[in-house]
Amino acid sequence: MNQDVILTGMRPTGALHIGHYVGVIKNMVALQKTHPCFFFLADWHALSALYDKTDIVRASRYEYVKGWVAAGVDPKVSPIFKQSDIVETLKLNQFFQCLTPPGWADRSPSWKDFMNNPNADRKLDNLGFFTYPILQAADIAIVGGKLVPVGADQVSHIEIAREIVRKFNRVYKAKLPEPEAYLSEVPKLPGIDGGLKMSSSIGNTISMNETEKSLQKKVNKIKTDDTRGDMANPGNPDNCTVCEYHKVFSPKETCDRVFAACRSASIGCGECKLVLGESMKKELLPIADKFNQITDTMCDEILADGALRARAVTKKVWAEVEAVTKF
Ligand code: SF4
């Protein structure tokens, strides 16, 4: 096993869906087999968008723990904890805030997107969101984290975190590990409406605990190749959202067979969606079953145990910080 510590988390900001499962959670399950991992619910980060809807953050915490564990994340192997249970993060964050010039936070891609997008949620115009990369640096450093799994669009955030930790090490002659982006091939699932992003706020999602019936119903709604018209016309899987889902959930032989049949007009979209439904049910229904068996009380126990184990590490890192900073 590689000994570089990985930290990854999700902001509990609403319903969990299979876009999260495909893009983040499956990767978490794989990573905990190769690296020591810490998995956290970034509830302080969630506040920057939902400071006036804390009930959503609270309810989402349970949903996310259920989804992670149901999908195969083992809380006995890697601690699962709430960011807000780790007080040492806030203490280190204060040091990092004092070391970070505002220009560094201003370079954050999320902040730039927000500033340049006239349709962005104006509530994000707050210092919590602006200073997000600084708190993220503290999240990573306080667990001795080195690797952070991110997509290519998030690398700049980790570069900011690295510069902050590097400056801390230089100023205090400390030896905190410098964070690095851990890029992995992560498939992105479009929304069932064909939109680039699956999102609860758009309403184009499939949740992680659908029933057999509701899952097939949503599969039937996935957008197809507009130009096909009826079954007599050959289709183009490259222009079809159903094809994107097949690539994620169906075995390669099934994809090859279905896509060839689509191009030769020997399969209709209804049948193609039934095949996809079977593939998705095979993978997702056992997860949904497990999800529904996990109670809120079980989540509380997992989070309490995770916080205890994470704090055994964060207290040590904070003791080192106190020693080098003579604070
Ligand atoms: S047959 Fe399948 S891949 Fe082809 S257009 Fe219809 S849904 Fe899309």
Fold topology:
Elements: E1 6-10, H1 18-31, E2 37-41, H2 43-50, H3 54-71, E3 80-82, H4 87-99, H5 102-106, H6 109-116, H7 127-130, H8 132-142, E4 147-150, H9 155-172, E5 180-183, H10 212-220, H11 241-249, H12 252-263, H13 269-293, H14 296-325
Parallel strand pairs: 1-2, 2-3, 4-5
This protein binds iron/sulfur cluster.
Concise summary:
The chain is mainly alpha-helical and 327 residues long. It has helices spanning 18-31, 43-50, 54-71, 87-99, 102-106, 109-116, 127-130, 132-142, 155-172, 212-220, 241-249, 252-263, 269-293, 296-325, and strands at 6-10, 37-41, 80-82, 147-150, 180-183.
Structural class: mainly alpha
The secondary-structure element order is: EHEHHEHHHHHEHEHHHHH
CATH architecture of the largest domain: 3-Layer(aba) Sandwich
Sheet with the most strands: spatial strand order:
1-2-3
- Rounded average pLDDT: 94
**Beta content:** 5-15%
| Fourth-tier CATH superfamily name of the largest domain | HUPs
Number of helices: 14
Gyration radius from CA atoms, angstroms: 22 Å
**Unreliable sequence segments:** none
Number of strands: 5
As a percent range, the share of helical residues equals: 55-70%
The CATH class of the largest domain = Alpha Beta
Number of domain units: 2
Bound molecules: iron/sulfur cluster
Q: Report the biggest beta sheet as strand number plus sense, adding barrel if it closes.
A: 3 strands, parallel
**What is the CATH third-level topology name of the largest domain?**
Rossmann fold
The first-to-last residue Cα distance is: 36 Å
Task: Characterize the overall form.
Answer: elongated
